[in-house]
């Protein structure tokens, strides 16, 4: 892992970037395959599946791995909160680098680079974070680009 990621103030940068056009740009390449979440050592999201025997005598409840890149992960009574890929990528990256700090007092990224190595289309979290930092929301607004 030879890359680096500027973490100074990253939480504020990402919290201010909810409507940043970069989310659409990365989503045009992202397949929403979930590989990045499956290989990330800090991702922990799970779902629950109930399995009932045909005779109705046995019922099992299993906890299974899930990913914020599936539409079902954010499904709430009638629809997905994160229906599109831009908001799924935003959710993943903002959680890793920003809201994880509020949740656990530390970054959700340990810098291992696995999400980069296993992304089938070469999306790089360090590149995406740098692109958003390079064009802050305020500058885009002034430019009429948001
Ligand atoms: S580089 Fe960060 S976000 Fe990517 S897999 Fe490693 S810990 Fe997870
Ligand atoms: S591994 Fe790459 S293509 Fe797959 S969901 Fe993650 S960022 Fe998108």
Looking at this protein, list some descriptive labels.
single chain, 146 residues, alpha+beta, two-stranded antiparallel sheet
Overall 3D form: elongated
* Tally of separate helices: 7
Largest sheet strand order: 1-2
Whole-number average pLDDT? Answer: 93
Largest sheet: 2 strands, antiparallel
Summed up, what is this model?
The chain is an alpha+beta fold and 146 residues long.
Question: Could you characterize what this model shows?
Answer:
The chain has 146 residues and is α+β, with helices and mostly antiparallel strands. It has helices spanning 10-15, 22-27, 35-39, 85-104, 114-117, 125-134, 137-143, and strands at residues 46-52, 59-65, 75-76, 79-80. It has a two-stranded antiparallel sheet. Strand 1 (46-52) and strand 2 form a beta hairpin. The protein starts with 9 loop residues before the first helix and ends with a helix. Bound molecules: iron/sulfur cluster (2 copies).
């Amino acid at each position: 892992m030879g890359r680096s990621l500027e973490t100074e103030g990253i939480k504020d940068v990402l919290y201010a970037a909810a409507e940043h056009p970069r989310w659409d740009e990365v989503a045009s390449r992202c397949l929403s395959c979930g590989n990045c979440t499956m290989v990330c050592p800090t991702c922990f999201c799970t779902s629950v599946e109930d399995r009932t025997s045909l005779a109705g005598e046995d019922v099992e409840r299993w906890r299974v791995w899930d990913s914020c890149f599936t539409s079902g992960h954010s499904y709430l009574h009638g629809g997905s909160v994160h229906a599109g890929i831009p908001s799924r990528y935003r959710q993943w990256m903002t959680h890793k680098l920003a809201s994880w700090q509020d949740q656990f007092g530390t970054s959700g990224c340990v810098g291992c680079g696995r999400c980069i190595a296993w992304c089938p289309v070469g999306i790089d979290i360090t590149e995406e974070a740098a692109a958003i930092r390079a064009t802050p929301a305020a500058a885009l607004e002034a430019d009429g680009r948001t």
